[in-house]
From TrEMBL:
Biological process, per Gene Ontology: ubiquinone biosynthetic process
Family from the record: Belongs to the UbiH/COQ6 family.
Protein name from the UniProt record: UbiH/UbiF/VisC/COQ6 family ubiquinone biosynthesis hydroxylase
Phylogenetic placement of the source organism: Bacteria, Pseudomonadati, Pseudomonadota, Alphaproteobacteria, Sphingomonadales
Pathway: Cofactor biosynthesis; ubiquinone biosynthesis
Species per Swiss-Prot/TrEMBL record: Sphingomicrobium sediminis
Transferase listed as a keyword: no
Start and end residues of each FAD-binding domain: 2-339
Length: 404
């Protein structure tokens, strides 16, 4: 008997397991994948931005201590409407911490897995999946595909966008697809990036350039997340590295000098989904199981870490009061804490996607005027910086850098 069964051992599921472990609550992590298979081999080009609040959580839980190498700080974010002059700059100088940190996904997985293996209260069941799960008034009972039976008062789904637990529970999901595909990779460039992230908006989609640590050869690296129309994505993927680098350099305006691709390119369709609720009988959902947004603001995985921190705090408070961890009142507290924040961020990113997708010079002029106005209004600009950092709203203790 464990305190929590976590279905899903990805980036968010393992962070949640570490949060429970740090407070003395036990959990069993069930995931059909073999995590070791995703830790070997060359860098595949996939990266993630940790907001500064997520980094505080990682530091507090001891996850950061397992990073193979430190991430690259994001000191500034420069936003532009195409290559037109003007724009908006978010600068963390004098703020005490960067706006975020860039990490290779494989390094995030290594750190999270090593922290999970070190956890005294974490039982890892990788390579296993549920053959049958029962959730009722008595608790949660799961029979694994190897015949093992596990039980807990609560199940947490951290299974990603296609969560089978969410679907089996009959939880409705609002969803739609954008006519965009995201192409992700990593490149090297002549000029140093200066720890600056660039977001260049085009009608077909944003081009994000994110600062990475220099390579072992000393060359300057940046990750790209390039949202293009679904019709154009196959053609860009078919280009050889030199051809794709030329297209990317043109989209960047060449301000970092000559570039060269150093990692494979991958692509995925972009969409929006948001569940009508984040809980069910003895069930809570975190991360992409509950919500998925456009990568326009780089907040996707960070929303999941906010879910994990909030749910862990609710459960630890409940345990200290001697409550059943699957109690509906506890789950209702989590639902109220997280549902509004996730919805607001989701709708904000959707609105930005649609706003910057309007073609034409008049629309571009209006966007540039709006950015210039925000740049002059201190409180509005600070609020947007807080959103980028993940430090707005009612923050869980872990996101403030405090133990639960």
């Amino acid at each position: 008997m464990s305190d929590v069964i976590i279905s899903g051992g990805g980036l968010v599921g393992l962070a949640f397991a570490a949060a429970l472990d740090s407070a003395g609550l036990s959990c069993i992590v069930v995931d059909p994948a073999d995590p070791e298979a995703r830790l070997t081999g060359a860098f595949d080009g996939r990266t993630s931005a940790l907001s500064s609040s997520s980094k505080r959580m990682f530091d507090t839980l001891g996850i950061s201590a397992h990073f193979p190498e430190p991430g690259n700080p994001i000191a500034k974010i420069q936003v532009a409407d195409g290559l037109a002059p003007g724009g908006l700059v978010f600068d963390s100088e004098g703020e005490g911490e960067p706006l975020g940190w860039m990490h290779e996904n494989r390094h995030l997985r290594i750190a999270l897995l090593e922290r999970a293996k070190a956890g005294k209260n974490i039982d890892l069941r990788f390579g296993r999946k549920s053959a049958e799960t029962v959730r009722d008034e008595q608790g949660v009972r799961m029979t694994l595909d190897n015949g093992d039976t596990i039980a807990a008062p609560l199940m947490v789904a951290a299974e990603g966008r296609n969560s089978p637990t969410r679907d089996a529970a009959g939880i409705r999901v609002a969803r739609w697809k954008y006519d965009h595909a995201a192409i992700v990779s990593t490149l090297v460039h002549e000029q140093p990036h200066g720890d600056i992230a660039y977001e260049i908006f085009y009608p077909a989609g944003p081009f994000a350039l994110l600062p990475m640590t220099d390579g072992a050869d000393g060359r300057h690296r940046s990750a790209i997340v390039w949202s293009v129309s679904s019709a154009d994505a196959p053609g860009l993927l078919k280009l050889d590295d030199e051809g794709f680098a030329a297209e990317a350099e043109a989209a960047m305006g060449g301000f970092l000098g000559k570039i060269e691709m150093i990692a494979p390119r991958s692509s995925y369709p972009l969409g929006f989904h948001h569940t009508v609720r984040m809980t069910d009988t003895r069930l809570a959902m975190i991360g992409d199981a509950a919500h998925g947004i456009h990568p326009i603001a780089g907040q996707g995985v960070n929303l999941g870490y906010r879910d994990a921190a909030a749910l862990a705090e609710v459960l630890v408070d409940g345990a200290r009061l001697g409550l059943d961890l699957g109690d509906a009142a506890l789950l209702d507290r989590y639902e109220k804490w997280r549902s509004l924040d996730t919805l607001m961020v989701a709708m904000a990113t959707d609105s930005l996607t649609r706003l910057y997708g309007i073609p034409g010079k008049p629309a571009s002029a209006v966007r540039r005027f709006g950015m210039a106005l925000i740049d002059r209004i201190g409180p509005v600009k600070q609020r947007l910086m807080d959103e980028a950092r993940g430090t707005s709203g009612d923050l869980p203790l872990l996101l403030r850098g405090l133990p639960i």
